[in-house]
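TICKET: design request
STATUS: open
ATTACHED STRUCTURE:
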C-alpha cells in the first residue's frame, strides 16, 4: 500500500505482510530486504489463500464494512482459517519484536491479531488502524459471532479509524455492548482492558506526488484528448463504477454542441477469483461498449476503459492534465485518489474534483463538487458544472482542498497515530482471558516500530 510505504519511509521500522507466493511450508519468514525499512513476509498455503484471504477477509469482512451485507458469503472454513492465520502471525511477531518496540497492525485482515498477541503474553503497546469504513451496528449482526468483533478490537491500546463518522459507529458498537464501560477521559474499559478510539485521516506524500505530476513528459503520447476527465480505482463494486459510466453517458446526451470530452477510466483488476468481482468486470465491459457504441465518432472515443495498472508517475501527470476527477464511491474509508488529484493540480489552472459524499475524504474536502453516487442525473450535472466552472472558482476550490491534503499528509498521519499510541497505558491484566496454564511471556517479547 502506497500510504504505508510512504509512512515507513519517514519513520523506518519493520514491515511484515503476506508473501505473494503460496507455500505449504509456513514456518519460514522471508526477508525481502529494504532500504528505508526492513520487509519480512510470511507465507500462506493455497487453502489459506482461498479461505483466509479470498474467503473471510474479502468475501465476509470487505462487503460487511462496505455496506454490502447481501454479498457476504458465510462459511465456517473461512472463519477457522482467518483465526488460524492470525494466531500464526502473532507467533511470528512474538519472535521478531523487541522489548521497546511498538506494533502497528493494519486493516481488516488482522482484526484478531492483537488478541492473539495478548494470548502469547505480549504486553507492549499495540495499535490498530482500519483503512476501510467501520461497519454499522446492524451490519455486524451478519457475522456468526458478532460479539468477537468488539472483543478483538478491545485488545488494542488504540483503535485508529479514518473519519469522525467511523469513530461514532465504533462507539455505538461499544455502547450497545454490556461488557463495555466509558471512562471519564473518553477511553473504553472492556472487561479488564482499556482502549481508545480516535480518528486519523490518512493522506499521501503531498510534495512528492506534486513533483511527479510536474514532469513534462506527455502521458498520452500522440493520442491525447483535448478535454478529459479521469477516474482511477481498483476494480471493486464499492467504487460505484457502473453509475459513473452511466452518469458520463447521461452528460454526453446533454453536452454542448461540438464538444468531445473523454472519460479515462483506469481500473486495475483485483480479487479476480471472487464471484462479485467477476460480475462487476462483465457489467463494466458491457456498459463501456454501450457508451462507445452510442456516442463514438471516427475520431473520438468517449470512454477509454483501461483494465490494468498504470505507473504512479504517469498517473500523476494524467491527474494534472485532467479537467476533472470522478470519485463515485458508494462506501470508502478515505479515498486517496481524491487527494492525489488535488496535489497534482497546477494551481494556476486546476481541474475540479467531483467527490462522492460517501467517501471518507468528503468529511473534510467539502470544497469538492459533492455528489450522490446513486443518482445518475446528479453525476451528469456535476460533470457539467465541473467542465463549465470558471477559472477563479476552480482556483479557489483547489486552494482550499490543497490545505486539507497538506494537513493530512501521510507523515502527519503516521506521526499522530504513533504519538497517541505511545501515550496509551501499556499495562493490561490479561489473566481473566487466558487459561491458567498459558506460558509466561518470554523476556525478549515486545513490538515493532511500524508493522
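STATUS: resolved
RESOLUTION: sequence designed for all positions
ATTACHED SEQUENCE:
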Amino acid at each position: 500500500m502506497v500510504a504505508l510505504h510512504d509512512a515507513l519511509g519517514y519513520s523506518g521500522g519493520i514491515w511484515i505482510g503476506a508473501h505473494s507466493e503460496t507455500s505449504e511450508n509456513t514456518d519460514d519468514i522471508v526477508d525481502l530486504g529494504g532500504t528505508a525499512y526492513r520487509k519480512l513476509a510470511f507465507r500462506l498455503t493455497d487453502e489459506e489463500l482461498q479461505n483466509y484471504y479470498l474467503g473471510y477477509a474479502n468475501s465476509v469482512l470487505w462487503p460487511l464494512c462496505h455496506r454490502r451485507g447481501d454479498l457476504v458469503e458465510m462459511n465456517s472454513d473461512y472463519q477457522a482459517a482467518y483465526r488460524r492465520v492470525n494466531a500464526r502471525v502473532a507467533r511470528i511477531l512474538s519472535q521478531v519484536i523487541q522489548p521497546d518496540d511498538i506494533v502497528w497492525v493494519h486493516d481488516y485482515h488482522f482484526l484478531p491479531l492483537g488478541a492473539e498477541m495478548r494470548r502469547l503474553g505480549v504486553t507492549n503497546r499495540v495499535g490498530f488502524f482500519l483503512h476501510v469504513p467501520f461497519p454499522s451496528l446492524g451490519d455486524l449482526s451478519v457475522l456468526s459471532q458478532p460479539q468477537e468483533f468488539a472483543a478483538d478490537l478491545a485488545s488494542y491500546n488504540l483503535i485508529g479509524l479514518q473519519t469522525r463518522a467511523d469513530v461514532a459507529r465504533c462507539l455505538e458498537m461499544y455502547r450497545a455492548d454490556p461488557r463495555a464501560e466509558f471512562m471519564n477521559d473518553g477511553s473504553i474499559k472492556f472487561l479488564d482492558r482499556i482502549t481508545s478510539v480516535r480518528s486519523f485521516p490518512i493522506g499521501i506524500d503531498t510534495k512528492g506526488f506534486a513533483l511527479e505530476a510536474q514532469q513534462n513528459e506527455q502521458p498520452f503520447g500522440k493520442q491525447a484528448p483535448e478535454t478529459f476527465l479521469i477516474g482511477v480505482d481498483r476494480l471493486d463494486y464499492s467504487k460505484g463504477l457502473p453509475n459513473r459510466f452511466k452518469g458520463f453517458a447521461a452528460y454526453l446526451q446533454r453536452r454542448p454542441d461540438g464538444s468531445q470530452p473523454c472519460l479515462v477510466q483506469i481500473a486495475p483488476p483485483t480479487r479476480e477469483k471472487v464471484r462479485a468481482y467477476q460480475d462487476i468486470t462483465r457489467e463494466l465491459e458491457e456498459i463501456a461498449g454501450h457508451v462507445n457504441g452510442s456516442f463514438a465518432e471516427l475520431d473520438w472515443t468517449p470512454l477509454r476503459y483501461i483494465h490494468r495498472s498504470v505507473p504512479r508517475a504517469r498517473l500523476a501527470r494524467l491527474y494534472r492534465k485532467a479537467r476533472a476527477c470522478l470519485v463515485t464511491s458508494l462506501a470508502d474509508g478515505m479515498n486517496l485518489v481524491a487527494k492525489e488529484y488535488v496535489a497534482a493540480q497546477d494551481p494556476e489552472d486546476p481541474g475540479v474534483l467531483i467527490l462522492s459524499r460517501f467517501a471518507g475524504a468528503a468529511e473534510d474536502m467539502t470544497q469538492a463538487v459533492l455528489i450522490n453516487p446513486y443518482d445518475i442525473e446528479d453525476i451528469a450535472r456535476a460533470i457539467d458544472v465541473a467542465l463549465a466552472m470558471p477559472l477563479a472558482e476552480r482556483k479557489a476550490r483547489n486552494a482550499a482542498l490543497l490545505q486539507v491534503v497538506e494537513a493530512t499528509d501521510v507523515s502527519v498521519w503516521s506521526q499522530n497515530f504513533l504519538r497517541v499510541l505511545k501515550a496509551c497505558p501499556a499495562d493490561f491484566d490479561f489473566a481473566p482471558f487466558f487459561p491458567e496454564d498459558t506460558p509466561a511471556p518470554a523476556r525478549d517479547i515486545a513490538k515493532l516500530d511500524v508493522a
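CLOSING REMARK: Residues 429-451 have pLDDT under 50 and may be disordered. The longest strand covers residues 193-199.
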